[in-house]
Design a protein that fits this description.
Layout (H helix, E strand, L loop, with lengths): L5 E3 L2 E3 L6 H13 L5 H15 L2 H8 L5 H13 L3 H11 L2 H10 L15
Antiparallel strand pairs: 1-2
Length: 121
Amino acid sequence: MFGPCFARGLFFMITPLQPEFVSDVTELIADSIPDDALDLVRKALVSRIVDEMPSDIMLKLTKSTDDFEFAELVLNAHYKERPMVDLIIDSFQLVGAEQTADLLDSLNIQQENGIPEANPS
C-alpha cells in the first residue's frame, strides 16, 4: 500500500503487508525520540488518535461523543505510564503508518547534533 520500507526524515513508513517489520520499526522510531521530546510526541499522537476516534469508542471512554479534551487527558495519562513504543504501535494501527510518520516528521524533532532530521540540509 505504501510501497517498500523507505526512510523519510527521522521516521519510517512500512507496508501493511510486512507485519514482521512493525515491531522493529516502531522500536526504532521510539528509540529515535529524544527524552526532551517525549511529551510533545505523546500529545501530538494522542491528539491525532482522538481526532480519528469513532464516536462509539469516544462514548465508552468519556461517556460523551464530543468530549475531546477529556479523551486526550485520559489517553495522555495512560500513555505517560507506558513505553513510547506502545503509543507508536497504537498510532500505526489506529491512525495509519504513513499518517503517523508524517505527523512525527512535522514535529521537526531535533537530533543530537541540533539539525532537524526532517531538513537534511
